[in-house]
Amino acid sequence: MSTGDTLDKLVVFLAKRDGIDKLVKTLQYVSKLAHWCAEPSRPELAKRAKSWETASGLSRKAFRSGRFLTGFNALRRAAPGEFGALAVLANAGEMVYYFFDHFTWLSRVGVLDAWVTRRACFISAFGEAVGYVFFIAMDLVMIRRGLRLERKLLREKGGGKDKEEEEEVRKIRMDRVMRLMATAANVADLIIAVAEVEPNPFCCHAVTLGISGLVSAWAGWYRNWPS
């Protein structure tokens, strides 16, 4: 791939809301890890890294304004079916997450009282965790089905070279990769949400949060990068 093609794809990627979010999320969690590394020996550098992390986090919250409507729209259009309940719970959790994230942002920039931050963070993170659990469940079910269908197609193919079946297998494998990326991102974000809902030494450690944030961001890069 030429440099020109890569640059064109980068422009398309950064033109998307999710593209900008993944870029800033990468900066946010790189700065978190930089703060942790520099804090013992270089406090001035650690202070700058912390400021960078805070600014990145606040900018992401501002940029996501109104995104809770995506979850609301998904709930409005949800159709009954085998994934009906899972889809409703997943999208409801996501909607709660993005809606209360507005209050977290407004309290942190000084528009609302500081006490709002803790309550809004808890409700937002709880909704986020619930949503991710059900999104992960749906993706795992679909991955399992894809594996079964792929094995069935390969058995029926029996060494032949049917182009339609080969294309179907290729699509199944690509879908599996995308769902695995989504699952990795959701598990990483679930760890970050648990650190807010139920603080514990493992989830709240800077390295755990930093690595989780980068896994989520880079999985999002992969999924949103133009083909």
TrEMBL record:
Key words of the record: Membrane, Peroxisome, Peroxisome biogenesis, Transmembrane, Transmembrane helix
GO molecular function per UniProt: identical protein binding
GO biological process: peroxisome fission; regulation of peroxisome size
Tagged with keyword Transmembrane: yes
Keyword Lipid metabolism on entry: no
Recorded topology in the membrane: Multi-pass membrane protein
Transmembrane parts of this sequence: 83-100, 120-143
GO cellular component annotations of the record: peroxisomal membrane
Subcellular location: Peroxisome membrane
Family statement drawn from the similarity comment of this UniProt entry: Belongs to the peroxin-11 family.
Task of the protein: Involved in peroxisomal proliferation.
Name of this protein: Peroxisomal biogenesis factor 11
